[in-house]
Amino acid sequence: MHTLRETFEWNGRTVAWDRLGSGPALVLLHGTPWSSALWRPLADALSSRFTVHLWDMPGYGQSSKDAAHAVDLGVQGELFAALLQEWRLDRPHVVAHDFGGAVALRAGTLHGARYRSLCLVDVVALSPWGSPFFTLVQQHTDVFAQLPPAVHRGAIEAYIRGASHRGLRDDDLAMLVEPWTGSLGQPAFYRQIAEAEERYTDEIEHLYPTIDEPTHIVWGADDTWIPVDRARRLQSLIPGSSLSIVEGAGHLIQLDAPTALSVEVSRWLDAQD
């Protein structure tokens, strides 16, 4: 795993982040239960043309996982707006996946963040969202948090495998699972699910028609976590937005169809310059 070399302190939280390459500013946002590691191959590829910013949200990856700190979408959206100010980025390109989509949308609609362009990849943006396992954990968080480590690992591996349409290699599965193991990772995994409430997207859905940044939506045709009908609904709500459906890809489109996603994102970003 690549180490994020910088940190940002915000309201007691430590945010791990990194900056790669040179050129126009580009920020990549991860979702749940992922981290910036999922974006790293694309970040490396784009760093020859962009200054790419990667970061782990508090409660995820290499950032702090203090049990006393809320990690809900409300907190993450406010933090992202503050992080853009810390980086002195006025209008960066933004590419967001999953939960990161809601973070970018909240920062833009509620906290004054502005983007040069917005690319939303299989994002959490419209209710309902969350797999059956996700819902079950929300209802019994305290019980799941007490699972023996080996049982916990088996449960999370099965959960994460379900996000891929083509199946995961062992090394990719390990990369996604490891941050959620151990004395800090296991309770953090269940804590972030417990705090993931649909009200955080419901309260901004009516603002999507006010988005005036160029917006492109990318979706895996075989996403079982957030089905493709959400992509079409989202496109209908954001004026002038475009939509591309990637065949043979599930929710983990970065691993199911990395080449197709790279081409799609590169094409979109090049069209904005």
UniProtKB/TrEMBL annotation:
Pfam families: Abhydrolase_1 (PF00561). It comes from Microbacterium aerolatum. SUPFAM superfamilies: alpha/beta-Hydrolases. Signal peptide: none annotated. This is Oxidoreductase. Residues 24-258 form the AB hydrolase-1 domain. Gene3D superfamilies: alpha/beta hydrolase (3.40.50.1820). It comes from the Bacteria. One of its GO terms (molecular function) is catalytic activity.
